[in-house]
Each structure stands twice: as C-alpha cells, then as structure tokens.
Amino acid sequence: MRSSLKKNFFRRLASQGFITALSFVLPNTVFAAGINNFADIVRKLTDVMSATIPGLFSLALLLFFWGIAKFVLNTSDEKAVAEGRKTMFYGIIALFVIFSVWGIIRLLEFTFLPP
C-alpha cells in the first residue's frame, strides 16, 4: 500500500512539474514573431531547449543525490543499498544524456545561427 502511494505521489509530482515547465516555455513560443526561415526554427528550438535544460539537469542531479542518500543511510539493508546504487547509476546516465543534448543544441546554435 505504501509503495503505491509513493508511486502515485511521484507521478503526480512529475506531471505537475512538466505542466509548470510548459507554462513557462509555451508563451515564448506561441506569442513569438513569425517563423520566416530555417534559422528562425533553429532559434526557437534552441530557446525552448535552453530554457528546459537547467531544470532537467537539476532534477537529474537531485536523483543522483537521492541515490547517494539511500546508499549511505541504509548500509545495513542490502536491498536498499542495491536500490541506492541503481538510483545513482540512473542519475549519472541522466546527467550524461542531458549534458550531451545541451552540447548538441549549442553545436546547432553556433552552426546555423551566426552571432
């Protein structure tokens, strides 16, 4: 019963965070000036992604630290230690993916959008 309440809480928290992030990002794209060429499309995409990357990076870092806390605080419980190790691993993978996407976005931005 308790684990299902935790799952529902985290699902609701994730969906509310996603809706909140969209409420900050969408007005910039919806009310923006018209798109006239490919550079405008790339600029809009990089603007949206540049606004969301720091939040995603923060969540991934929080996930990693959550795994560290589980790993360190539950040293007597082998199952909790394994779960903490798995959470840290997923946090590192998420940080790597987000950092890679950020690099690709910066590459697109500097390739297609002159300063």
Could you explain the architecture of this structure?
- The protein folds into 2 domains: about 1-30; about 35-110.
- It contains 3 helices and no strands.
- It has helices at about 1-30, 40-75, 80-110.
- Helix 1 packs antiparallel against helix 2 and helix 2 packs antiparallel against helix 3.
- The longest helix has about 35 residues, at about 40-75.
- It is elongated and about 60 Å long.
- The N and C termini lie far apart (about 55 Å).
Quick summary of this structure?
This protein is mainly alpha-helical and 115 residues long. The chain has helices spanning 2-30, 38-73, 78-112. The chain is elongated, with a radius of gyration of 19 Å.
List the helices and strands and how they pair.
Elements: H1 2-30, H2 38-73, H3 78-112
Helix pairs in contact: 1-2, 2-3
Low-pLDDT ranges:
none
Query: What is the number of beta strands?
Result: 0
Q: Which outline best applies?
A: elongated
Coarse structural class: mainly alpha
Helix/strand order, N-terminal first: HHH
Q: Give the helix level as a range of percent.
A: over 70%
Whole-number count of domains: 2
Provide a count of the helices: 3
Residue fraction in strands? under 5%
Mean pLDDT: 78
Largest sheet: none
Radius of gyration: 19 Å
List keywords for this structure.
single chain, 3 helices, 2 domains, 115 residues, mainly alpha
